[in-house]
C-alpha cells in the first residue's frame, strides 16, 4: 500500500449534510454537492498540488444490493484506472475506520474537472462544431476502452461527462456500470426505475428491451449528447415509457416489422409500437445541419454534413446495426483526431465473484480488503507544485 492508513493523519470537516473525515493531505474542502449515490466535494492535495474530487459513497453497505454495487463499482474503477483513456481517474481510496467491524464509510479521490457537459449545454458558452467534434471523439475513445473490457457504462448522460478548462473529457457516473452478465442478473434490483428520467432519456433500451441490451446502448447515449450539444436541449425528453418511444419515433421514424424482429422487442413493446401511426424519419440535415443568420455565410449553429452523417450512425434505432465505438472512431468526421495507436484498449474485466450470492457482511469484507490493498498508480501522485 502506498500510504499506510495507520500512518495517516486525519481531519474532519463538518457539513450540514454529512461529515468528511479525510487524510490531512486533502485541504480546503468545498463546495459540497449532494447526489443520490454520493456527496462530492473538491479539495487540494497538498502532497501533489493538484485539485481533486472527493466522493463519499452514501450508505455503501446498507443492504445486500448496495454492498454488492459498492464492491462492483470499486472493482471496475480499479480495473479501468488509466492515465489517458477519458475515464475518471482514481487517485486514492480510503476509509477512516480502523477495522472491518466498524467499516461504514468509503471515499474515492478522483481527478478534478471544472465543468460537466450539462452545465456547458445550458450555459451561454458558444459551442462550436470543433468543440462538438472533439467532445464526441473523446467520448467514443473512452467507450472503446471501456467496452474492450467487456463493460457497459449504461449511464452516459451529459451530467456524467466532465470537461476541464483544457477541454479534456472524463467519464464519471460508475455506480450503474457492469458487465452484460452482471447487469442482467441484477437488473431488477438496481439498474433502472421509472423515476430515473435521465436513464430514460439517454438509454431507453434499458426500459424498452433490457434482456437484449448491450454496449451499443452507450453509443445511442453519445448520439443523444451530440444532438444536445447542437440544439442545446435534450433530444428525447420522454415523460413516461410510452412517451419516450413516441418522442424517439417522432425523429427516427416508426420501426417496421422487420426492424422490430431484429431488435427482439418484448411482445408488450412490440404491440404498442404496432398501434402507433406510421411516421417517417425526419430530415437530420434540417434538424442538425448548419444554421445561418440571414445574409451570412458563416454558420451560427449546427454541424457539417459529415457531422450529420455521424449522428445518423449514432442514433440508429436498431442496436444490431449500430456501430461499435471502435468502428465510429474511423468515421471521416474524426480524421484530424483519429490515431489507432493512441486509442487505448483494456484487458478483459474478470470478476471472480460475478456469480456469487453473498451476505452484506461478506461483500463488505471483500471491499475492505480491496480498499486496504489499493495502490495508486505512480501517475496519480505526480507532483505539480514545482511546475506551477
Automatic annotation (TrEMBL):
Lineage: Eukaryota, Metazoa, Spiralia, Gnathifera, Rotifera
Record keywords, A-Z: ATP-binding, Kinase, Nucleotide-binding, Serine/threonine-protein kinase, Transferase
Stored InterPro entries: Kinase-like_dom_sf (IPR011009), MAPK (IPR050117), Prot_kinase_dom (IPR000719)
Protein name: Protein kinase domain-containing protein
Pfam families: Pkinase
Protein species of origin: Rotaria sordida
Annotated PROSITE patterns: PROTEIN_KINASE_DOM
Any one GO molecular-function label of the UniProt entry: ATP binding
Gene3D superfamilies on file: Phosphorylase Kinase, domain 1, Transferase(Phosphotransferase) domain 1
PANTHER family in UniProt: MITOGEN-ACTIVATED PROTEIN KINASE
Ranges where the Protein kinase domain occurs: 26-334
Amino acid at each position: 500500500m502506498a500510504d499506510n492508513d495507520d500512518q495517516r493523519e486525519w481531519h474532519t470537516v463538518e457539513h450540514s449534510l454529512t461529515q468528511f473525515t479525510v487524510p490531512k493531505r486533502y485541504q480546503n474542502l468545498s463546495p459540497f454537492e449532494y447526489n443520490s449515490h454520493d456527496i462530492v466535494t473538491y479539495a487540494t492535495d497538498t502532497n501533489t498540488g493538484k485539485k481533486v474530487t472527493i466522493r463519499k459513497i452514501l450508505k455503501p453497505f446498507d443492504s445486500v444490493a448496495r454492498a454488492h454495487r459498492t464492491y462492483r463499482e470499486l472493482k471496475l474503477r480499479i480495473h479501468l484506472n488509466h492515465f489517458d483513456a477519458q475515464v475518471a481517474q482514481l487517485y486514492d481510496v480510503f476509509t477512516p475506520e480502523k477495522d472491518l467491524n466498524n467499516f461504514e464509510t468509503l471515499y474515492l479521490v478522483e481527478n478534478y474537472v471544472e465543468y460537466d457537459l450539462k452545465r456547458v449545454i445550458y450555459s451561454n458558452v458558444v459551442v462550436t462544431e470543433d468543440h462538438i467534434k472533439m467532445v464526441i471523439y473523446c467520448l467514443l475513445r473512452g467507450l472503446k476502452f471501456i467496452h474492450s473490457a467487456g463493460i457497459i457504462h449504461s449511464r452516459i448522460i451529459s451530467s456524467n461527462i466532465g470537461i476541464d478548462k483544457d477541454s479534456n473529457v472524463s467519464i464519471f457516473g460508475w455506480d450503474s456500470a457492469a458487465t452484460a452478465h452482471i447487469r442482467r442478473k441484477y437488473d431488477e434490483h438496481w439498474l433502472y426505475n421509472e423515476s430515473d428520467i435521465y436513464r430514460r432519456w439517454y438509454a431507453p433500451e434499458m426500459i424498452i428491451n433490457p434482456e437484449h441490451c448491450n454496449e451499443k446502448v452507450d453509443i445511442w447515449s453519445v448520439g443523444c449528447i451530440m444532438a444536445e450539444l447542437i440544439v442545446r436541449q435534450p433530444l428525447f425528453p420522454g415523460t413516461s415509457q410510452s412517451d419516450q418511444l413516441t418522442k424517439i419515433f417522432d425523429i427516427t421514424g416508426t420501426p417496421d416489422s422487420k426492424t422490430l424482429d431484429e431488435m427482439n422487442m418484448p411482445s408488450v413493446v412490440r404491440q404498442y409500437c404496432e398501434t402507433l401511426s406510421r411516421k417517417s424519419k425526419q430530415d437530420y440535415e434540417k434538424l442538425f445541419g448548419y444554421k445561418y443568420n440571414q445574409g451570412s455565410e458563416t454558420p451560427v449553429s449546427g454541424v457539417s454534413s459529415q457531422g450529420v452523417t455521424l449522428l445518423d450512425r449514432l442514433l440508429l434505432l436498431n442496436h444490431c446495426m449500430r456501430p461499435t465505438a471502435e468502428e465510429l472512431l474511423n468515421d471521416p468526421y474524426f480524421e484530424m483526431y483519429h490515431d489507432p495507436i493512441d486509442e487505448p484498449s483494456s484487458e478483459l474485466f474478470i470478476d471472480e465473484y460475478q456469480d456469487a450470492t453473498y451476505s452484506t457482511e461478506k461483500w463488505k469484507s471483500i471491499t475492505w480488503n480491496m480498499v486496504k490493498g489499493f495502490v495508486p498508480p505512480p501517475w496519480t501522485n505526480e507532483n505539480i507544485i514545482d511546475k506551477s
